[in-house]
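R.M. (postdoc): so does anyone remember the format we settled on? I'll just put the structure tokens first.
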């Protein structure tokens, strides 16, 4: 049984809970990692979630996203998820920011990183229906159309603001 790392209001470890307990109970804030993969031309890789996933099937989402297992560091989770989902080595990823996102269904604390990658991307067909690189303007044009996950739509302006504030 997969156990997720819970966190308190300050982001400190606060025990663990199952996926079933976390999904459906917004009081159980749990850690997730997000990795934005950019190609050398500055295009952002998005994945279309598999149709059989339990949340937002068929919608475009963050390059890599996954839950942090109980007792696992966010760094280890990022490396694991990048390898599992896209077969990408995320050891050169840089941490950007974190934020809390929640609603009636769940509460997640996302640790967001970015990686420039010029190698092959091999999405896991069990989790990802398809994936490709998009220009940021293309992605912005998708906002509000119902094709992106709500969390990604929330995260996108935070990502863009962070990228634009860098020297």
């Amino acid at each position: 049984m997969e156990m997720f790392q819970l966190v308190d209001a300050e982001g400190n470890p606060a025990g663990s809970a199952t996926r079933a307990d976390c999904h459906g109970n917004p009081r159980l804030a749990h850690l997730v990692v997000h990795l934005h993969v950019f190609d050398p031309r500055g295009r952002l890789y998005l994945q279309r979630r598999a149709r059989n996933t339990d949340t937002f099937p068929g919608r475009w989402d963050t390059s890599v996203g996954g839950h942090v297992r109980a007792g696992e560091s966010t760094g280890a989770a990022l490396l694991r998820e990048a390898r599992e989902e896209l077969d990408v080595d995320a050891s050169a990823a840089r941490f950007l920011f974190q934020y809390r996102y929640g609603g009636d269904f769940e509460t997640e604390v996302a640790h967001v990183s970015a990686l420039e990658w010029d190698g092959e991307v091999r999405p896991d067909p069990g989790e990802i229906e398809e994936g490709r690189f998009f220009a940021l303007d293309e992605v912005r044009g998708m906002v509000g159309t119902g094709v992106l996950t709500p969390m990604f739509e929330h995260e996108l302006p935070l990502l863009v603001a962070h990228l634009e504030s860098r020297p």
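R.M.: ...and that's the designed sequence above, right after the tokens. Also worth knowing: Helices lie at 19-22, 74-86, 136-142, 150-165. The longest strand covers residues 29-38.
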